[in-house]
Amino acid sequence: MKIKVTSVFVDDQERAHQFYTEVLGFIKKTDIPAGDFKWLTVVSPEDPEGVELLLEPNENPAAKTYQNTIYEEGIPTTSFAVDDIQKEYERLKNAGVKFTTEPTEVGPVTFAIFDDTCGNLIQISQV
C-alpha cells in the first residue's frame, strides 16, 4: 500500500492552483471538471509520478470548520520536505509569501510555517 493522493482544503481552487504552481513550483497533474468544482491535483516536478496533492474545495461546512480551527490553532495542514530550508525560505519570502514561523531548529529538523493564501498553514522542513 502507498499514498497516491492527499489533499488540502482550499477556499478558492483557482487561487490555490496559481499559488501552488506559480509560487511554490508544483506542476498541475490532473484537472477534471466535477460539477461546480474540479478534481485538481498538483505534484512535485522532482517526482511527477509521485504523490498528488488534491486542492479540494472546502464547501462542506465540516471542512470549513476543520480548516478554520486548524488555522486558528496555528497547526500546519501538511508538510513539504526541502533540501535547503534557508534558501527556500528566502525564495518564498521574496515572492511575497507570509511566514508565521521563520526557520526554527528543533533537534535534527529545521522547519518554517507559511500561509498558503487559501486558508491553510503549510510547513516546510529540512532534516
Summarize the structure.
It holds the Pfam family Glyoxalase. The chain is α/β, with parallel strands linked by helices and 127 residues long. It contains three helices and eight strands, in the order βαβββαβαβββ.
Task: Write a concise keyword list for the protein shown above.
127 residues; alpha/beta; 2,3-Dihydroxybiphenyl 1,2-Dioxygenase, domain 1; four-stranded mixed β-sheet; 3 helices; 8 strands; 26% helix; globular; VOC family protein; Glyas_Fos-R_dOase_dom
Topology:
Elements: E1 5-10, H1 13-23, E2 27-34, E3 37-43, E4 52-57, H2 61-72, E5 78-81, H3 85-94, E6 99-106, E7 109-115, E8 121-126
InterPro entries: Glyas_Bleomycin-R_OHBP_Dase, Glyas_Fos-R_dOase_dom, VOC_core
Protein name: VOC family protein
Domain VOC: 2-127
If you had to describe this structure to a student in words, what would you say it looks like?
This protein is α/β, with parallel strands linked by helices and 127 residues long. The chain has helices at 13-23, 61-72, 85-94; strands spanning 5-10, 27-34, 37-43, 52-57, 78-81, 99-106, 109-115, 121-126. Helix content is 26%, strand content 41%. It has a four-stranded mixed β-sheet with strand order 1-4-3-2. A four-stranded mixed β-sheet has the order 5-8-7-6. Strand 7 and strand 8 form a beta hairpin. The chain starts with a strand and ends with a strand. The model has no long low-confidence stretch (mean pLDDT 97).
